[in-house]
Amino acid sequence: MTAVADAAPTPAPSPADSDLVRAARGLPVRRTPVWFMRQAGRSLPEYRALRAGTRMLEACQDPDLVTEITLQPVRRHGVDAAILFSDIVLPLVVAGVDIDIKPGVGPVIAAPVRSVADVDALPPLEPDRLAFLATAVRRLVTELGATPLIGFAGAPFTLATYLIEGGPSKEHARTKAFMYAEPAAWGRLLDRLAVSAATFLTTQVDAGASAVQLFDSWAGVLSAADYAERVLPHSRAVFDGLGGHGQGDRDVPRIHFGVGTGELLTLIGDAGADVVGVDWRVPLDEAARRVGPQRSLQGNLDPAVLLADRATVDREVRRVVAQGRAARGHVFNLGHGVLPDTDPGVLTSVVDLVHELTAT
C-alpha cells in the first residue's frame, strides 16, 4: 500500500469505518491513520492562549474547554483521530483525592498511600460525578462527525505509582517496595484503580467514543515476571469492564501503551489490547514479531526527532512507515507525547507525509 493516489481517498462515512478503527481491527485502510499523543496541548499556541489563567485539573472538568482543546489539533493538523483532553489523575481527583498538578513537577498527592489503611480509605469514583465528561464527549462526537474520538484513562499501576510516591518518581522505589511487602493491600489498591479506570472509560464509550487508550506510563520499570503476576490482571480488568468483544455498543478498539515496555509488549497485548502502543526504543517490525499477528501496533517516531531538520524528520517518518508494514495494522504516532517545543508546522507536515506515502 505504498502507491500515492491521484486523488484523495474517499473519506470514511462514520467513525466506526474510519481508518483508525479499521487499522486497529487489522482491516484494510484508505491510508495509514495518524494521531499524536499530547497533540492537544502545550505545543499549540491556541491551546496556551485558551488555557491561560485556568488550572489543568479545572480545564479537564470544563466541557467547553475540553471540547475546544480536543478539537484544536484536528483542525490544525488534519489528524485522523482526536483524543480526549484529560489528565491521567483526573478520576482520582473527581473521586475526592487531594491532588494538585504543579507546573514543572506534575501531579502531587497531598496524602500519599503508604499503608493498608490508606488503601482502604481511598474514595471510590461514583459514575454520577462524571456528568461533565459525558457532556464533553457527546459534544465532541457531534463536532467531529466521521473523525473518531479516542477515550483516555490511566492504567492501575501508573496511578498507583503516583498515589504511593506522592508525585512523579524516577525509581518508583516506594511503589515496588509496597508491591512486594503488602501483596494483599497492593491487590486491593489495583482492584480499586481498575474499577475507577473502567468507570472513566465506560462513561466515554457510552457517550460516543470510538476507541479507548489505556496509558501505563511507568510499567516499564517492572520485570516481565512482576508485570505478569502483579499488574497485568488489573489492566485486563479495566478492559473487561468495557465488556467483551462483540458485545454491542462498547465493542470498541482498545489501545494499550506504556513507556520503556519493550520486554513487556507481548504481555501488554495479553492484557486485552487490540493495538499495542510502542515507544521509540523497539523498531516496529521487531515489535510486530514480539506481539504477533493477532494485534495491531501504534507508534513509534521518537518525539525528539521532530526538533531536528526537515530532511531528518522525513527520513525517520519513512522508516517508521516502512517498519509498520510488518504489523497486522499500523496507527502512526509518536513513541511518547509531543514535546512542548515542537513546531506545530512539523506535526502537520508529518501527517501529510504519512498520508502521501500510504494512500491507496
TrEMBL record:
Keywords for the protein's UniProt record, in alphabetical order: Cytoplasm, Decarboxylase, Lyase, Porphyrin biosynthesis
Pfam entry (one): URO-D
Main localization, broad class: cytoplasm
Catalytic activity: uroporphyrinogen III + 4 H(+) = coproporphyrinogen III + 4 CO2
Entry's Gene Ontology molecular function annotations: uroporphyrinogen decarboxylase activity
Record site: Transition state stabilizer: 87
Residues reported in the UniProt entry to bind substrate: 38-42, 87, 162, 217, 336
Enzyme Commission numbers on file: 4.1.1.37
GO BP term, example: protoporphyrinogen IX biosynthetic process
Uroporphyrinogen decarboxylase (URO-D) domain location: 33-42, 150-166
Metabolic or biological pathway: Porphyrin-containing compound metabolism; protoporphyrin-IX biosynthesis; coproporphyrinogen-III from 5-aminolevulinate: step 4/4
First-level EC class: lyase
CDD domains membership: URO-D
InterPro entries documented for this protein: UROD/MetE-like_sf, Uroporphyrinogen_deCO2ase_HemE, Uroporphyrinogen_deCOase
Superkingdom of the source species: Bacteria
GO terms for cellular component: cytosol
Subcellular compartments: Cytoplasm
HAMAP family noted in UniProt: URO_D
Sequence similarity: Belongs to the uroporphyrinogen decarboxylase family.
PANTHER family linked to this entry: METHYLTETRAHYDROFOLATE:HOMOCYSTEINE METHYLTRANSFERASE RELATED, UROPORPHYRINOGEN DECARBOXYLASE
Quaternary context: Homodimer.
Function: Catalyzes the decarboxylation of four acetate groups of uroporphyrinogen-III to yield coproporphyrinogen-III.
Protein name: Uroporphyrinogen decarboxylase
Species of origin: Geodermatophilus obscurus
Taxonomic classification: Bacteria, Bacillati, Actinomycetota, Actinomycetes, Geodermatophilales
